[in-house]
Amino acid sequence: MKARFILSTILMAFSFAVQAANISGFVTDKETQEPLIGATVQLVGTSYYAIVGLDGSYSVRNLPEGTYEVEVSFVGYQKIRETFSVNGQNMKRDFLMALDNNDLAEVVVSGSAIKGSEMQARTLERNAANTINVISKKAIELSPDITVANIVQRVSGLSVERNASGDPQHAIVRGMDKRYNYTLVNGVKIPSPDNQNRFIPLDIFPAQLLERLEVSKSLTPMMEGDAIGGAVNMVMKDAPEEFMLEGDIQLGYNQINLDRGFYHYDRSDLNMNSPYQQFGADYAASMGDFTTSNMMLRNKTPMPDILGSLTYGDRFLNDRLGVMLGGSFQNSYRGSDSNWYRADVDNFGSGRPTLTRLQERVSSTQQQRAAFHSKVDYVFNPQHKLYVYAGNYFLNDFRVREMLDTDVDGRNYNYLGGTGILTHITRFTSRYQNIQTSTLGGEHSFGSRGRFTMDWSGVYSLAASESPDDGIFKRNGEMRDFEFQPQNIERRNFRQWLNNTDRDLTAFLNFSYAPGIINDETRIQFGGMYRDKDRNSFFNRYIFDPTSPAFQVEGVHWDTFEDVSWALLNPRGNTSDPLNFDSYEKIAAGYINTKWDVFNTEINAGVRVEHTDQGYTLAVASQSVNPDSSQTYIDVLPSVSFKHRLNSKMNLRGSYYKALSRPGFHEIVPYRMAEEDGFDERGNPNLQRVRAHNYDVRYEFFPTLSEQVLVGAFVKDLRDPIEYTLARTNIFTGPLSLQPTNFGNAVNWGLEADFIKYYNKIGIRFNYTYTNSRITTSKIERRRENPDDPSSQLVQVSVDQTRPLQGQADHIGNLSLMYKDQVLGLDAQISAVYTGERIEFVSPFLNNDHWSRPITQLDLSVDKNIGKSLTVFVRVNNILDTPYELFVKSPLAREDAVFPYQNNVNETVVRSDRFGQSYRLGLRFRLNQ
Questions:
Q1: If one looks up domain 2-102 in CATH, what number appears?
Q2: Looking at the DSSP assignment, which residues form a beta bridge with residue 568?
Q3: pLDDT tens, 639-670?
Q4: Which among 162, 369, 623, 634 is placed 20 to 30 Å from 209, CA to CA?
């Protein structure tokens, strides 16, 4: 009886399954075919319904036989009602929805929703005249990224260079070092607060204020020509079509601070100006002019990180006046644990690396970011528009670095025995960076159908950086039998002030004319720009020795920094240092471009001419260096690109352009700076600009307006590339110094693939770039005259070595897996970024370059909607806590020596940094009419 009942139940269930059916299909916009994600497909009068997924698909399952009325609805669109019958067979039914023109408010909602969407990003990529990649506001919102520097590593072909806290800071485009790229805000180049270089620290810009991020990988004549790698354009939020108010607040913590606490110092008495700046050049400073509270180390459990943003936008005066206001603030506590070896080359002819000093570093950094963004536009009529943009961006870093410096090359060092000569170094650094930019511009159209257009803009930008009272506290010590001995004060402690400003005045004027030749798509574009740049640098360092007595022992003469008795060796500082200079750069440029559209092919061909006048003047002349210098040159930069439309969803594009890269202002100054926590640095007045011929092809397939398949290749032929090498004035003596140098010619080529696909609730983003660069340079090989005779004379010979360009990783990959449940209001994304090995520092010696290991970073983000206006989200960064490591691809010269952190006998580790995981919990709100 029981078996009969079970059999009967199974047969009934099977009978129901046979009779039940599914209805599925796609819901898209009738005009654009854009998937209408979130639309509802409801069977009227029943509990059966479906929510349209990421790819525009829906599926209503297990429908019994019968007749149903289906209703499809989406905000801003006309509802669709159809009747159909189910007879046990699965059905396919697609719905094309039209905008509801009878509901103006809903139409406006639909139109404004396009801004910052994935559809807009894919449309820009498809329609652009040059090769670009776009990250939308929506993608940024769902990612775990808090700064623009975090975002760029998600773009195909881009990797990042990290700062001392482990955060991404500068973009490397297609294997080209950060010097070969420039940064734009709303299409306008901005100056850098970096005290040495042109490139912009992208971590100064918060992600919340972006409408989208555009990366141009090829140039047109309308774009400035100093971007061999590419250009990163931050398009900030613009005025919406209707009222909008959105914001977020986040709390977070970093694991490394939980593990060991956070080191800090008191900034309340920090002197922003040196005695020289306060009292004049003739003032002789005394110890009373220097505070002590900001030179004393403390440890605490920090407060949680706090991040927040608020954005408001609306239109007034019958939609003629648009207003966008936004602000952002971030206060975070970062840490790192590092081991750094000062490496040299064996003096006895093996050519292998030797280790001379080991620094074990513990760093803590408080970062404060603030940003204020406003844009106002006024539309007189469809032909004339004026706009004003103002942005102000701040980044403050307050860092403590506690270092234990061990002489690992001395006779007293025994790692296994726990003995060695030590130097204890504590460094306190405060840095305030600011970028201001203001733009007044207009867009005008004349004649029937806008055959003649003009746009213009005037830009004022100012970047500044201040590092006040950057000081070190050095003590000598010793370890005996693994026990630290009392420390005594080291000579030549310093406290220094560094300030620099970079001011730009820029004017742009562009014209476009449609002559009506061949067809209406033909355009002649021409225009120009002029920029006047003024940059100045101030540096003053005061040197201190212990005195009364000169030998001061911990626990006897002092316990903290304020107990030490000091003598000031240079009461007027050292303002004669070459780091005190003024520099300028004047660039005038003009271009002409022609645009043609024939045989389904858009062709752009033109030329840009740039005149550069660049130079510097030292504040104090010196007999050993040139007190002022300048260089003037003209570059003719032709370019041509085509985009062939294979069909409505496929493009084949190619381009050629010539570009340049100018030396940094600081690099051509004949300075030299000694560093306690890294290599010394010096300038190179003979540095020349880099020129390059660039070739690019790409196949594009856009299955829908939100999906894409991109496959491309590129070649860059460089003349006189600039790289930083570890050099010394005398090959056998003197410390190694980092110096920029031109290195012959180089070729960089690569392959790119970019893939975005959605499957209802699942989304996949994947991109991969292979880069191969080759440059042949002279290296020094130090060896025995007779390699088989270890007693023969030690000689040095020059040999050629072929290697990749500095900063170029052979493999770069990004993978993001997304999950979206419309019913639960849940979004989840896990993202992995892989960067292959690359050369970080070029050694002058054969086979001694410093390479970074491959890095994989894994991040997680989860968002949960609460009603229509609120979203709770969680972010976890650096889940794997992947270390950043540098190594030399050669074993140590002393194979029998024992050093810490050397775990592979076939290589030499020279640096290892660990940064820990970070966690954030946040709430986001959005209000619309």
A1: 2.60.40.1120
A2: 544
A3: 999 999 999 899 999 999 999 999 988 888 88
A4: 162
